[in-house]
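Let us practice reading a record.
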Amino acid sequence: MNNKNTYCNPLALESIPRGKDFWYENEFGMFSHENKPESLKNTKDYRSISDPTLFYYDNKWYLYPSYGMCWYTEDFKTWKYHKTEPYCPKYSPCIIKWKEDKFLLTSWICPLYYSTSPLGPFIELGDFIGLDGEHFRPCDPAIFKDDDDRIYLYAFDSSIKSNKIPSGFISRIVGYELDYNNPRQVINGPIEIMRMDPRSRTFERQGLNNQDIDFGWIEGPHMLKVNKRYYLIYACPDTCDASYVNAAFYSDESPLYGFKPQKHNPVTESRYGLIRGAGHGSIEKGPNNTLYCVYTIAAPHYHMYERRIGLDLIDINEDGELYAPKGITSTPQFIPGLVKNPSHNKNDLGYLNLTEGMRVYASSEIDGHDALYATDSSPITYFLPKDDDNNPWIECKFNRSFIVGALRLWFREANLDYSKGITPRPIKYILEGSKNGIDYFTLFDNSNNLKDMNIDYQTFDEEEVIVVRLRIIKDYQPLKIGLIDFSIFGKAKRTTKENE
C-alpha cells in the first residue's frame, strides 16, 4: 500500500467557516456579548469547526460539524464541501435515517428537520414536544434509531441545582423515546442516563490538569449500538482545554436504562502536541465492521471556541468496552476500509514527522512569530513572515538524507477581517527538496490551487532529500499568511552498509 491512500489529522477540509457568523451577534447564552469581557467582545475574526457527527450511508461518509454544512466522500481522500439548507443549525448536529426515503436532523437549540437526502435541503418539522405538551429545543442533541425502529433523543441538561458546588448546577445527559411517526413527540422521558461526578471520574474535572475536584462538565452525547450493547459516548470537561475527551457509559438493558461507566475511560484523549483535545464527536460504523471516532480538537488562539476536527480508529476490547487501539494519531493513516483488521495490523503508513521539533529557517520572520513556531507541535503559536517579504519561504535542513512523501500545512490567516473583505482564499505554494543543499527541485506543486484549504494534507512521489523548502506564493494581498504547522512526513533512507 502506498502513501496515496492516507489521511492525516487534523482533517484537511475545504472552506472551514468563520467562527462567528452572521447569527453570532444575536445569539444568547455563552455566545452573546452581554456581560462578556472586552477581550471576548473584540475577538479577531477566526475560523472554526467542531462537535462533528460522522454518518456512513450507502458507501459514502458524511461529516456534519457545527455551522450548517457537510463534507462527504466516497474514497476518504477527496472531501466535497456542501453548505446545507437551512444554513447554520448551530452546534452539535446529528442525523439518522428515519424512514426508507427520509432522514432526520437536529442541532443545538434547534427544531427537528427532515429531508429525502443526507445533504438536504432540510424541511422544518418543528420543536420537540414533551409529555406535558410543552415545546422544547434540546441542547447538544443526539438522535438514535434502534434495530426495532424505535427512535430516541439524548441531550445535555443542567436543570438540577446544587448549593454544594461553586457552579450551582449539575450537568447531566438525559434521554427520551420519540414517536416513530411523529418524531417531534416525546412518548417517554426525560430519563437521566448519567450525571457529572468529578470526585469519582477525574477526567470530568475542569482544567488542563483536571484540578477542579468539585466541578465537572459533561456534554455532547452520542449513542452507538454494537452486538446488542448500547454505548453512550459523551464529552468532558471543556471544549477550550486540551483535557477535552470522549468517554463512555454502556448498557446491556435498553437505550434508556441500566447505564454504567466503562472501566476503560476516556475513550479518546490527547493533551499535548498538535492534536490537543479529542472530545465532543461521534463514533460510527464503517466498512469491514470497523468503528471510527470523529472528534473536536482545541486550538484556542484568537478565541476560546477556535477548534478543528480529527478522526481515529476505535475498537471494542475483551471487556466489551470502547477504546482507541492506535490512540490519537498525528501522522499519515490508511483510509478506512483499506487495511483488514486495522486494530491488530499496521494502520499507519510508517512515516514519521521529520520536521517536528527541528530548527527551521525562513526568508523573514516577525518578532513573536518566529519560524520555529511552525514546527513546535502547538496549535496556538504560528510563524509569520514580514509584510514586505514578497517571496516568503521556510526550510528545514536534516542531518542526513530522508525519503519524504507527504506534507501537512496548517495556515494562520493572521489578519482576517470579514467586515473589511479580508477573507480566506486558496493559498498557493510549492514544496521543494534538495539532495545537496544547493540544487532544488519540486516535490509538490500547488501553485495553481483553487481550493480554500486552511489545513492541507498532500502526498507526492517519494524522493530522497536532505533539505525541504516551502515557498508560499504571495498573490493574496492584503491577507497575511502564516503557518501554525509545517510538517513533512517520511522515513530514514537506509545506508548501503545497513542493507548489507
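A brief commentary: Confidence is low (pLDDT under 50) at residues 26-33.
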